[in-house]
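Form 7-S
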Amino acid sequence: MPTLQETLGTQPKRSQVISDCAALIDQEVADKGGISGMAIKAGYKVVKSFKPGFVPEAVDGFLEEFCKALQPIVEDAQRQKRPIAAFFAADRSRVAEALLAITDARAQKSKLAGIKAAYERLRGMAKKNVEEAVPRVGALIEKHAAAVAA
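Output:
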C-alpha cells in the first residue's frame, strides 16, 4: 500500500493537495471568531498581502514532513478499518501534536532567540487552532489518499 508521501507528495496529486491545503488554511482563518480570531485574521492578511503565495509555498515546504508525521495515524485508522476523517476527528490532540512536533523542531533549530520565544508564547494557542482544523485535515487526506485508505 502506498504511503501518504507517495500518494500526496508526488505530481500530479501534489499540486492539488497544496492548493486544497491552502484553501483549508484560508477557511480555518475565516472561521475564527472573537478577539483572538480578529488578531489571527489581521496577521494572516498582512502575511498574504506582504508575500503573495506564501501559504502554498509553506505547505509545499512542509508537505513531506506532514505526510511522514501523519503516516502512523493513518495506519492506525486502517488497522481499525475506520475512515481517516473520523479517526482524525476522534483523536484531534494526537494529530495536532504530530503536526506541531514539526514546527516545534524547526523553532528549536532557529538561531534567533526572538523567534524561539515568540513560538513558545504562541504554542498553546497553536495547538488549539490545529486541533480545530483536524477534521478538515482528515477529510482532505481522505479525499486525496483513496489508495492509502483502501
